[in-house]
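ingest -> validate -> predict -> emit
validate: passed (alphabet ok, no gaps, 283 aa)
predict: started
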Amino acid sequence: MSLTAHIPSHRKPRRSASKLAVRAGVAGGVLSTLAMAGTASATPSAEPAHETTLEMPVLNMDLAAEVSSSVAKAAENTRAAAVDGELNALEESARTGAAAEAKKAKEDAQQKADAEQKAKEEADRKAESERANRSSARASLSAKSASAPSEGSSSQGSGTVSAPATGSAAAIVNFARAQVGKAYVTGGTGPSSFDCSGLVQAAYRQAGISLPRMSQAQSSAGTSVSLNALQPGDILYWGAKGSAYHVAVYVGGGKFVGAQNSSTGIVERSLSYDKPTGAVRVL
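emit:
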């Protein structure tokens, strides 16, 4: 064993280098702080520290103009789109309205055509009925004429009287002939248009004679005369006496003047054109 083995060492233990460095840094920092404080207190007249400000960026004017232009363009596009939408709506409404009007016009035209066709058919039917009635009346008259002598045949002889009209008869005949060429209108009593009984009534009014308005009553006025013994001014009728459907004025010479229908108007015709059923004399 060594002689120095139990002699204690009086040297302090070594500190690590890292701890020494930390302590040295701390000490240096403290001393530096104290030095700065002292310097600051020793120079009170030092200039104050200036405040630092940040400069804000300035908006580029070209950029602002471009933004404004874009906004304006967007607004214009929106307005144009709205206008286009409104125009499209108006065009659609116009098309719809035009289609509805065209459909209604077509329906109205069809209804009018149907009504005209119906009226024509009714007129044709009525004319055919009148022709049939006249044919029946003629057949009946022929049968009566064959079975019995005509009234007044013994004194008047055969054929019609063709002597010129005089007095009241002349007034009636002249008026009737003056109306030839005027229109036939149902219910017409003159002066520009007549129906059959309206013409006869107006003609007799020239002689101061008042006749009933309707052909049925006119056919039973006065005294019945034979068609072979007619005189100017006699009233001719078609159909049964008292229910005749047509009348006219005998004007002499085997002719009559009558308001026939809407197609012919007032005409002067021979008795053979449409032979009457009978006649009455009011004068």
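Helices lie at 17-42, 61-147, 153-156, 167-178, 196-205, 215-218.
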